[in-house]
Amino acid sequence: MKLEKRENFNLAHSITDLSQFINNLELLKKTPKNLIIKLDSKLINNDSLILSLVNYSSFWKTKHNSFILVVGDFSIKNKNLVCVPTLDEAIDYLFMEELERNV
Fold this sequence. Notes:
This protein has helices spanning 18-29, 41-44, 47-62, 87-102, and strands at 2-5, 10-13, 35-38, 67-70, 82-84. The chain is of the alpha/beta class. A hairpin with a 4-residue loop joins strand 1 (2-5) and strand 2 (10-13).
């Protein structure tokens, strides 16, 4: 997994090892910051991973941070996860959530 630290968020991408990815999420929980995760099609079909991501998403929300998945053309049928098709849309969504939190 690669983690890019940007001004307002962290971007996780190139995820190949699920256990390493989960370990990294646990480390990021210590100092949660807005997080965008780019998933590829192999990972999107992993039901246990999706359930884990729901828990992480809930945690991030309790800390008043965004947790957004970039899933391309795929659809994840879980109302507790924010899923968008592109990174640009994820960034836009993040800024919209920040505006809502600041109002």
